[in-house]
Amino acid sequence: MESFIGIFVLLLFGVPLLLWLRLESRFNKIIESLELLDYRQRKLKKLLENMQNKETAEPRQEKHPAPTIDEPKPEEKPTEAVVPVVQAEEVHEPVVKIPVTQIAEEHAETTEEPVPVKEELQEKAVLQSTGTAAEAEPATAEKPEKFAYSEPIYEKETRNFNYEKFIGENLFGKIGILVFIIGIGFFVKYAIDKNWINEVARTVLGFATGCGMLILAERLHKRYRAFSSLLAGGAFGVFYLTVAIAFHYYHLFSQTSAFVTLICITLFMSGVSILYDRSELAVTALVGGFIAPFIISTGTSDIVTLYTYISILNLGMFALAMYKKWGGLPVIAFAFTYIIIGLTVLNDGTANPTPSLPAQMTCFTTLFFLIFQLPVFYILKSESTPRMNKWLMCVIVGNSFLYFLFGNFFVHGLLFDFEAGALVNLFIAAVNLALYLYLRIKPNVYAPLNSTLLALTITFISITPPVLFRGSTFLIIWAAESVVLLWLYIKAKSRVYEVGAMVMAALTLLYYFTSGTYEYGSAEGTTVPLFLNADFSTSIFVSLAILVFAILMHRFKNIFAEQSRFLVYTPYNAIMFGAGIFIAINAFINEFGARLNGDTAIAADFLATSTIFAASTVALRNRFKLADFKEWYVVMGGFITLLYMYCIWLFPEKREYTSTFLLWLTTAVIVFNLWYIIRGFLKIDWYRNELYAYFSVLATLVWVSAAKFLLLSLGSYSFSAGFSLSLGTAAFILMCLGMRIHSKPIRIVSLAEFGIVLAKLVLIDVWTMQAVGKIIVFISLGVILLTLSFLYQKLKNVLFGEEPEEKEEHHKDV
């Protein structure tokens, strides 16, 4: 009997509430119709009164102008007074010319039908005809009354965001609902602790609270639409929370009863959203529907039941979205569905795999692909908002690629004798091709949908052969084809070649980075020679093809910067250069890791990486000019310094002779690259003071790391004294350089390094260093400090010559 308590409570409160809401809605519609009729009646009455007032006012305006304009007619003296006035006006206002012979005619016309001119021109015309201002006063006073009319003035709407409205109306409401729900939870917990009410009464109280909020939301939905939606959403949140507590803590419901109760709540909320045309309530119901299985979860997973429920929920969501034109529902359902699939892969697919899981998930992922592809396609080809169209297009594209990812994962678990993942690619391409062909006979649809479906079809058809045959031949063909198509576009200027080159280059990069080309293993058991193998050759060929692609774009920069529609010079040229360099580095690292042993492989990796960076810096100095890409070169200087420190400090102390030799070559390359960057910055003089300090620190780090590597090469593994001596020497050199070029930032860095050395001597070396080390370090440091003190004393006028002058000027001003 207890298993049906939830359903009974829901029927007890839900059915009467639904009937009340329905009757209240009909009653409100009748009241709205009556109010509308009353409003229109008052509007018509006011309009009739205005028309009557206008008819009574018009005869009064016709009686006054006649005697005022007829008086000056007997006097025929305007010719003598008008001529000088007209000449004077030609000087000040050459645009307005009033001939003398037409003045009498104008007076005659004004008695019958006055001309709507500006008040200033009317006054001047009357003055010229009468000669006096007193006679013109009646005419100028009557005309504004004749032609005066009231015109509504509409203020320009401001598009500034109203933060006060957002906080007070939206944010405070959402926070209030959240706080209220948390308060209900605290109250229920407090009631449990005090034993005021039993479990059944607490559950009924929770449902009653939600119903009260829902009734209040219904009463306020006309005047306060946003607030009533928040109340309704909060009410259903209370329902979900009550069911969760009653199931997990009170054990009033069985799992089936709790699940049915949650489904009924979701359906009830969907009905309310349709009844009151509230998309936000539909979104809340959809989210609640997705979290319902997790609310009643007991730790055991039933894949078939879970995904059957999600399939039904998605189908119902699309029916509601197509009926009410709510495009936001598919986006939310898409996100939740694939998140749940990802959680299934992480939990059941890897931790607790079952034999039937791949087959079950293959069927369900295919069903979800069709559910999200076909209804979203239907919504897009009909009318929708531009903003929502962008999100739905993301669903179309993301659905294809996510199904490609999860479908291949589950199909591989079926253990076919062939690469069944190719069938997934062909299925995606076939569905998108069918939708594209359907749109060809349906004009006036969303324009980007056609091109997107065609692009998806070509993409997945092109991916199929490499997945089916697992060879590097297609990668080489695609890379070469992208370069050939780019060259044809440069020569023919055809958009087809441009799109083809872009698609083939994208497919080449996508397949290279997603396919595992190398198989790592011990170098002792391998017979494949270094560099002379298909894997390395393929990677180098792809890298060179991508770099040639980028070089052609740079060589014909005007075409791609001005004429290209898709392959725009910025940023695609820089992206292709970066991709080509990265593939080359990756090829050498993978080759050394697969063919060499231990320390030698790691040292070769560092040498290859630093050499490619240095070669790229020199070779691309005209493409990526330092004056235009200053920040990138600053970051590169820091990166190569950290790379060198990593290979010295985090490397095994005992090394083979080959690895030691390779690391010394790496040191030379790093020093050259850092020197080349610093030399370029000194030429352009960009942020001189800040960069002096920055590159001084980088040079010090390289110097100290090289000193450590030197001691390791000589067999000395203790670096305490070596650190103090190397850092002190670097500080001394920087101080001399700072004094030589009069750079205060360099001298500050030097003083900071001396401070580090002195602090190390006082805090560490005095207590731990051996006697010989103490003697050498203390004597050397003392000599260095004395030398610096002498240099400061000798060069104080040169270094600080400006300070006394500034102080004297300050005293004079005081």
Automatic annotation (TrEMBL):
<feature type="transmembrane region" description="Helical">
    <location>
        <begin position="229"/>
        <end position="250"/>
    </location>
</feature>
<dbReference type="Pfam" id="PF10101">
    <property type="entry name" value="DUF2339"/>
</dbReference>
<feature type="transmembrane region" description="Helical">
    <location>
        <begin position="330"/>
        <end position="347"/>
    </location>
</feature>
<feature type="transmembrane region" description="Helical">
    <location>
        <begin position="171"/>
        <end position="188"/>
    </location>
</feature>
<keyword id="KW-0812">Transmembrane</keyword>
<feature type="transmembrane region" description="Helical">
    <location>
        <begin position="691"/>
        <end position="711"/>
    </location>
</feature>
<feature type="transmembrane region" description="Helical">
    <location>
        <begin position="717"/>
        <end position="737"/>
    </location>
</feature>
<feature type="transmembrane region" description="Helical">
    <location>
        <begin position="775"/>
        <end position="792"/>
    </location>
</feature>
<feature type="transmembrane region" description="Helical">
    <location>
        <begin position="749"/>
        <end position="769"/>
    </location>
</feature>
<feature type="transmembrane region" description="Helical">
    <location>
        <begin position="445"/>
        <end position="463"/>
    </location>
</feature>
<feature type="transmembrane region" description="Helical">
    <location>
        <begin position="496"/>
        <end position="514"/>
    </location>
</feature>
<feature type="compositionally biased region" description="Basic and acidic residues">
    <location>
        <begin position="55"/>
        <end position="79"/>
    </location>
</feature>
<feature type="transmembrane region" description="Helical">
    <location>
        <begin position="469"/>
        <end position="489"/>
    </location>
</feature>
<feature type="transmembrane region" description="Helical">
    <location>
        <begin position="392"/>
        <end position="414"/>
    </location>
</feature>
<keyword id="KW-1133">Transmembrane helix</keyword>
<dbReference type="InterPro" id="IPR019286">
    <property type="entry name" value="DUF2339_TM"/>
</dbReference>
<feature type="transmembrane region" description="Helical">
    <location>
        <begin position="534"/>
        <end position="554"/>
    </location>
</feature>
<feature type="transmembrane region" description="Helical">
    <location>
        <begin position="6"/>
        <end position="23"/>
    </location>
</feature>
<feature type="transmembrane region" description="Helical">
    <location>
        <begin position="601"/>
        <end position="620"/>
    </location>
</feature>
<feature type="transmembrane region" description="Helical">
    <location>
        <begin position="306"/>
        <end position="323"/>
    </location>
</feature>
<feature type="transmembrane region" description="Helical">
    <location>
        <begin position="256"/>
        <end position="276"/>
    </location>
</feature>
<feature type="transmembrane region" description="Helical">
    <location>
        <begin position="420"/>
        <end position="438"/>
    </location>
</feature>
<feature type="transmembrane region" description="Helical">
    <location>
        <begin position="359"/>
        <end position="380"/>
    </location>
</feature>
<feature type="region of interest" description="Disordered">
    <location>
        <begin position="52"/>
        <end position="79"/>
    </location>
</feature>
<feature type="transmembrane region" description="Helical">
    <location>
        <begin position="632"/>
        <end position="651"/>
    </location>
</feature>
<feature type="transmembrane region" description="Helical">
    <location>
        <begin position="200"/>
        <end position="217"/>
    </location>
</feature>
<keyword id="KW-0472">Membrane</keyword>
<protein>
    <recommendedName>
        <fullName>DUF2339 domain-containing protein</fullName>
    </recommendedName>
</protein>
<feature type="transmembrane region" description="Helical">
    <location>
        <begin position="657"/>
        <end position="679"/>
    </location>
</feature>
<feature type="transmembrane region" description="Helical">
    <location>
        <begin position="566"/>
        <end position="589"/>
    </location>
</feature>
<feature type="transmembrane region" description="Helical">
    <location>
        <begin position="281"/>
        <end position="300"/>
    </location>
</feature>
